[in-house]
Amino acid sequence: MEEKEVQKFDVIVVGAGPSGVAAAITVARGGARVLLIERSSAAGTKNMIGGAVFLSAVKDLFPDCWQEAPYERFINSHTWSLLGDDTSVNISCDFPNENKSASIYRSKFDSWLVQKAKDEGVYFAPSTLVKHLVIKQDRVCGVKTEFEEIYADVVIIADGVNSLLAKETGLRHDYDPTDMVLSIKETHKLSREVVEERFNLKKGTQQGAARNFIGGLKLEEAPFALGFMYTYLDSISIGLGVNLNDLSALGLNPSDLLERLKEHPVVKPIIEGSEMLEYSAHLIPEGGYKKLPKLYDNGVILAGDAAGFVNGVHFEGTNFALMSGKYAGETALSAVKIKNFDKKTLKLYEKKLERSFILKDLKSYKDVIENLCKRKDSLMNYYPKKAAEFFRIFTGASCKPKRDEFRKFIADFIGQRKLRELFKDFWAFVSSVFGVLK
Ligand SMILES: Cc1cc2nc3c(=O)[nH]c(=O)nc-3n(C[C@H](O)[C@H](O)[C@H](O)COP(=O)(O)OP(=O)(O)OC[C@H]3O[C@@H](n4cnc5c(N)ncnc54)[C@H](O)[C@@H]3O)c2cc1C
């Protein structure tokens, strides 16, 4: 009987999202043989973003051709809206001359990334599901797909938030629902002119806008949830990320929550007359630094969402994915060069992450989401309503003395909330800020 040829690469990367592609390209650029495996027939079809990709990381990986990527709009305007029942207090910033992030469709953007990887010598295997790892003598030395075993000196696991492979290595365990956000998103078709008019964008350009919504769900027991909206050329996305634990405690369907946001009197006119093109849902790992898994072991490295690299406060995930992928690729390459693939060699990955914004940011933000979650009723219900009340007095002439109105406002503010609760809110805020800055 003819013996089947054994396939062997220097490095195998599982998952062709931003982290996987960045890892594979980095390895290929260093001259090693790398196979990138993706379960979908085309990259990006199973992936999700709100969303905007952060351009600093794209520029870092593609200094000569980052402009060629299929961007929809550059996010030059960002608004945070505190929603009361029928009010909105907004903080906006416009950067008309700066392109720091861009809205993208994952199917187009990820395909562009994969094409770049193939151009640079990466072997790409689409429609291939990695079912297991090949582990021999306490070392990962390949993958098992539906059809065959493929071997490599290093396997980079970049298969996203539900990484079954990371669990198989024992590096990661199941996430606690408290550390997970379920994000649901709809894409709505609107004409290009209407998008530009509703978001006050310069006509016929790629200027774009993003909005985040806090509160406005009209629930007595508010979950920890944040709404978002991004502009594309001739469509917009609207979505909501909600803590998984809070969602199950509420017993509500995530789409019910999104409907509540869409029905808010400030949000409804923005999507009026649109046609829904797409609905999707995806998990985001937001456990942060305290819940990070072990990031490497003999012959294996975790990158991107599979490692839990997301900064939920700033909606940052793609930049963490691209840069952690790059560091994983560099580490694999060093191991290939010295022909040593054990965990002592791969510790270099952790050192690179520690020197970069990835572990620095995750460390300094380690308490922020937890602090905010504990004060979710204040954040999602109380302050958005109080902010609206304040601005009602400030901007409206009621023919009553302003002094009386402000005094009543302050008395209610303290009376309804109790000093102890206000102090806890204040402390959560101060300790979060202090944590980030120290
Ligand atoms: C609703 C939402 C909004 C977001 N908005 C933003 C935003 O605005 N800005 C931002 O920066 N980030 C945002 N993020 C986060 C960002 O999308 C992720 O952090 C980023 O995509 C992670 O990249 P990744 O390569 O690690 O994983 P993924 O992009 O999830 O890619 C993993 C890949 O692995 C493949 N795969 C999985 N299992 C296997 C297997 N066994 N075999 C083969 N292939 C496999 C998948 O098909 C997929 O292509 C958002 C996320 C969500 C859900």
Number of strands: 17
Which molecules are bound besides the chains? flavin-adenine dinucleotide
Count of domains: 3
The CATH architecture classification of the largest domain is 3-Layer(bba) Sandwich
Q: Taking Cα atoms only, what radius of gyration do you get, to the nearest Å? A: 24 Å
What does this structure look like?
The structure is a single chain. The protein has 438 residues and is of the alpha/beta class. It folds into 3 domains: 210 residues, FAD/NAD(P)-binding domain (3-Layer(bba) Sandwich); 108 residues, D-Amino Acid Oxidase, Chain A, domain 2, CATH 3.30.9; 69 residues, no CATH class. It is 39% helix and 26% strand. The protein contains 15 helices and 17 strands. Strands 1, 2, 7, 8, 9, 10, 16 and 17 form an 8-stranded mixed sheet that branches. A hairpin with a 4-residue loop joins strand 4 and strand 5. Helix 1 runs parallel beside helix 3, helix 9 packs antiparallel against helix 10 and helix 12 runs antiparallel to helix 15. The N and C termini lie far apart (66 Å). The structure holds flavin-adenine dinucleotide. Flavin-adenine dinucleotide (FAD) binds next to helix 1, strand 3, strand 11, strand 15 and helix 9.
Give the tags.
438 residues, FAD/NAD(P)-binding domain, D-Amino Acid Oxidase, Chain A, domain 2, 3 domains, 8-stranded mixed beta sheet, 15 helices, 26% strand, binds flavin-adenine dinucleotide
